[in-house]
Design brief:
single chain; alpha+beta; two-stranded antiparallel sheet; 12 helices; 10 strands; globular
């Protein structure tokens, strides 16, 4: 493994950081998350058309840049530093790889160039709170997580005119604003039970105000910078993703899950690194007993421990990006666990070391703390990520661990 980055990769990092410093400060983030889309559409247009972020890891044949997961990881780390709300995770990290892996040639040709240009955003709708299970990060995704029989979830029924979906999916990232939905649904009944992915195109009614078959409602979430929605489907027309009903959907989802975990880990590392920087700056200024609190040995020790933890998480995230590109499996989950833990500890220490101002809504420290808590709720918890990785590797061989 070569741990050094190329000049082009460093340029991606530098350019994106400069742009976000100018256009995505704490106040801009607060304004963006309260907009209808949940993000700054002008900033998204710049990220898409000038920097090519949505198509960064897509082939040039579909309007992409043709880079690897590593470049996407570096970009996400910078977005994490500023907590920039954007459809990048839902569209380019979750949706586009599934279209590329499972879609028919007509579907890829029609949709991927629009995603690469930023014109079209996508969202992956998974029933219940099963996103990490579907991606193979916290459990076996070959079960009935998509719903089936009495399990609820989302059901798919084949008719003469195609496929129809009915059911509900919660916690759909950017589901309230996406122009394309990729819906995981159960079909086949008891005898031929399986999970397939379907495309739902066209506008969906918002806020449940219409009488159509599909509605979406933006949810109030702990982390405002990570928009979520509830998707309700009532006999909705859908299109099978791909041409083959026997495709290994679970295997593809698990493969995409590794790259998703690497990107999320880098994003968490970026957030942890930034909040640590701000905390170090603050303890140099805040005074007690006539001296800066940063000069106290106890504070130095706490900050040193945080620095080591953040750097270790960064190394794990970079290794996961390399390993995913090299075809190594089940590395992303462990990197994500380490990064989420580093962000949780760093952000909570930041609130403490900022004193009373750190607990106020006016200060940005609480935004990082909420990102840490929200990400653990969505993509964790940490102990389940590690437990599943240990089970998959048969680390303990089914026996008891000696104490």
């Amino acid at each position: 493994m070569d741990a050094t980055f190329t000049a082009e990769q460093e340029e991606i990092r530098r350019t994106l950081r400069e742009l976000l410093l100018k256009r995505c400060g704490p106040e801009e983030v607060r304004i963006a998350v309260r907009s209808e889309g949940g993000y700054d559409s002008a900033l998204w247009e710049t990220l898409a058309q000038q920097l090519g972020l949505p198509g960064l890891a897509l082939p040039a044949a579909y309007g992409g840049v043709g880079c690897s997961v590593t470049e996407l990881v570096l970009a996400s780390e910078e977005l994490g530093r500023s907590l920039a709300p954007s459809p990048l995770l839902a569209t380019a990290v979750l949706g586009a790889p599934l279209l590329l892996a499972l879609g028919s040639e007509d579907q890829r040709a029609a949709l991927l160039p629009r995603i690469s240009s930023g014109e079209l955003t996508a969202a992956l709708a998974v029933p219940g709170a099963s996103l990490t299970t579907a991606l193979g990060l916290t459990g076996d995704n070959r079960g009935d997580w998509a719903g089936g029989g009495r399990a609820g979830g989302v059901q798919a029924r084949q008719t003469d005119g195609g496929w129809r979906l009915y059911g509900q999916a919660d916690q759909v990232l950017d589901g309230h604003s996406a122009g394309l939905l990729l819906v995981a649904a159960h079909t086949g009944g008891f005898a031929r039970s399986r999970t397939l992915l379907f495309l739902v195109r066209g506008p969906l009614e918002r806020d449940g105000s219409g009488s159509g078959g599909a509605t979406r409602v933006r949810l109030t979430s702990l982390d405002e910078t990570r928009s979520q929605a509830r998707i309700q489907l009532r006999d909705v027309e859908a299109e099978l993703l791909g041409d083959d009903e026997s495709a290994d959907v679970a295997g593809v989802l698990a493969g995409v899950g590794d790259s998703v975990a690497a990107v999320l880990a880098a994003e968490a590392v970026g957030a942890a690194d930034r909040v640590l920087e701000r905390t170090v700056e603050y303890v140099k200024q805040r005074e007690q007993f006539g001296r800066a609190i940063g000069s106290f040995q106890a504070v130095k020790h706490r900050l040193a421990d945080l620095y080591v933890q953040v750097q270790a998480a960064r190394s794990a995230a970079y290794y996961a990006a390399w390993a995913t590109g090299a075809g190594e499996e089940r590395v992303g989950g462990l990197a994500l666990a380490q990064a989420l833990e580093a962000l949780r500890i760093t952000s909570s220490e930041a609130v403490q070391l900022h004193g009373g101002i750190g607990f106020t809504w006016e200060h940005e420290a609480h935004l990082y703390f909420k990102r840490a808590a929200g990400d653990e709720l969505l993509f964790g918890p940490v102990h389940r990520l590690r437990e599943h990785a240990a089970d998959a590797a048969r680390l303990f061989g089914g026996g008891e661990v000696a104490v």
